[in-house]
Amino acid sequence: MSKIKRLIASYAAYIAIPWRTDAAAAQRVLFCVYVDRDEMLRFLAKSDLAVKKIALVLGDEDQSLAFAGHLPNAGYDAFVSDPGMSVEVG
Question: How many whole angstroms separate alpha carbon 4 and alpha carbon 65?
Fold first, then answer.
């Protein structure tokens, strides 16, 4: 199995973990990494997820900052994480 296929399998197992039953929809946070801005916006528009906040964690800092600045116009709160940054979920 290639490194990419192992990564995909590992992520699929992680993302399959169910939400806590006592978590309200607004408390459910999903972190996704998409290379393409338009693809991410299409995914969010088609999903029924109650996205609370989006953390941009990869890519060129200038592009990430520009994308984070665009997301509020699409109705999403977003930020660019700093290296080593911890984010509380839940």
Answer: 27
Higher pLDDT, residue 5 or 30: 5
pLDDT digits (tens, 9 = 90+) for 9-42: 777 777 667 777 787 766 666 655 555 788 888 8
Best CA proximity match to 23, nearest among 49, 43, 1, 42? 49
Distance CA 52, CA 15 (A): 17
Give the residue ranges of DSSP H helices in the chain. Answer: 3-15, 37-46, 61-70
How far is 7 from 13, CA to CA, in rounded Å? Answer: 10
| Nearest-angstrom CA–CA distance, 49 and 11 | 18
